[in-house]
Each structure stands twice: as C-alpha cells, then as structure tokens.
Write a structure and sequence with these properties.
heterodimer; A: about 110 residues; mainly beta; six-stranded mixed β-sheet; 12 strands; about 0% helix; globular; B: about 120 residues; seven-stranded mixed β-sheet; four-stranded antiparallel β-sheet
Amino acid sequence: AQSVTQPDIHITVSEGASLELRCNYSYGATPYLFWYVQSPGQGLQLLLKYFSGDTLVQGIKGFEAEFKRSQSSFNLRKPSVHWSDAAEYFCAVVPNTGGFKTIFGAGTRLFVKA
Amino acid sequence: EPEVTQTPSHQVTQMGQEVILRCVPISNHLYFYWYRQILGQKVEFLVSFYNNEISEKSEIFDDQFSVERPDGSNFTLKIRSTKLEDSAMYFCASSELVVPSNEQFFGPGTRLTVL
C-alpha cells in the first residue's frame, strides 16, 4: 500500500547535538518529497523539498535531507540542534501520479533538552 | 511576504450546526486545498480546487462538505451538519502553479470544536 512512514513518534536530543529524523515512503514511482515543521499552535512551514537532481538538499533553518532511492528514504538532518527547533516535523509526499494532494506522515515530535 | 490567512482562528459550534471556514489564499495562486488534522493525528488531505471546480477529493470529503470560491479572494469550506468527529484543525493551502512539485503554502489553521 502507498504510505509515508515516520517510525519515531518522538525524539529527544540535547541542545547542540545532531539530529536525524527518519522518513520512508512506499510508492511505485519516486514521489515529490517534502519536510514540514509545525510549532505548537502554528501552521505548517516548508523546510525543504526534493524533486530530482542532487540527492542532498538544503533547507531553511540549517536543515538538510538526503534522498536515497535504494532505501526509499528521505531523512532530515541538522548538525546542531537549537532549543527553538522543538516542534513537530512532518515528512510528506505528492505522489507522481498526476494529482496534487499532499500525503503526510504521522509526524515526529522533537524535544530539545538543555 | 505574502501568506495564506484563515478566519476564524477558533470556532466552537454545536453538533448539527453549519460552519463555514474561510481562507484567503495568496493572490496570484491558482490551486487551493483544504486539509484537516484531528488532535494528535496526521494531517489529512480533504480536497483540492482549481478553475472553480473540485480537482480531487478524499473519502473524508463526503456530502456534508463543500467548497467554494465566492469571489476573487476567498476560498471557503462549509460543513453542513457538524458531527463531534469533525472537531479538528483545518488548514487551507494554495499553490501558484498547476504542477505537483509546486510548493503549497499553508495557512495557520482554524481549530473547530464541535460540542
């Protein structure tokens, strides 16, 4: 079945530590890939996206993500986490089937400890 | 910077009542969407709208839901007879180009509480 999986419901990291949030997708053709962040009570903000080309994409706020076709993954990374990064992170896809709807993963809540 | 706006930020209604959630997409955008997020759950696609008609809808978007672009700026979601399970955060989004790779810009959401 077509799906977007974020295996970690929540993650806690120390401020200054590195971060990796996992995302796997299950679609026949590589979909368009996105990461969004949602702060408490706020809307969704796009961090980065991948369509084609260089498999390492840079986003806002110091985030990057790497597309790995062989693993059907699009993991989000940040080398040094700041307390303000505490939020919910959603991996999302737009399937490459002609439609435009975005399919979201269940989200990973990031906690940052001092 | 242009942004998608939504009103109201919070709506409380009684079960069975009609509600209209309003959105003002970014002015030069052509494609509009509604999504919802039940508390603690993932964001779910409801409907997309282009050229004054529904392009795509999910199984959630049943006959009690409707969308409309009543003028050149607003995009509305109507729920005819609300149910308790309609309580959720509703997000409007818009995109400029009619291609799936185009970024969707999301509004801040309207929290709907059905009592």
